[in-house]
Design brief:
mainly alpha; Four Helix Bundle (Hemerythrin (Met), subunit A); elongated; 142 residues; 4 helices; 2 domains
Length: 142
């Protein structure tokens, strides 16, 4: 078994357009970025849960309870968003493993590094994304 070497990423490394797109370093960079984002979300949702539990212990007062119901609704929505985000992050990590990460689902073209850096879970290039949004606007009747 050859030991699986993980490329070490220098702290100041940033993917640039003058290296091969999605080379080992870039994949490692985005993998690390996605993982630390996921960890942050998980940590945050643990704190949210803790907060909900602490909150629950002490509400004799009805007005308090009403406001805590609203809080709970908000927190549950936030948790739902977190869950969706985590599954998107995990999907992105899978794409890094299978070599499809960073390529537009629709056109197969590379998504710009700037866009991936800002939104590492992007699956569409900016152009494809804009086409989608235009299409959705057409079908949405507001």
């Amino acid at each position: 078994m050859g030991s699986h070497m993980i490329a070490e990423i220098e702290a100041d490394y940033h993917p640039t357009d003058d290296e091969p797109f999605m080379n080992e370093r870039q994949r490692e960079y985005f993998r690390a970025k996605l993982n630390s984002w996921k960890d942050d979300i998980l940590k945050e949702s643990r704190e949210t849960l803790q907060h909900l539990q602490d909150d629950n212990q002490n509400h004799p007062d009805l007005a308090d309870r009403a406001s805590s119901e609203t809080d709970r609704a908000i927190e549950l929505r936030a948790r739902d968003r977190q869950r969706k985000l985590i599954s998107k992050i995990e999907a992105a990590l899978d794409r890094i493993e299978d070599g499809t990460y960073g390529y537009c689902e629709e056109t197969g073209e590379p998504i710009s590094l700037k866009r991936l850096d800002a939104r590492p879970i992007a699956t569409l290039s900016l152009e494809a994304q804009e086409r989608h949004e235009r299409r959705e606007r057409v079908y949405r009747d507001d």
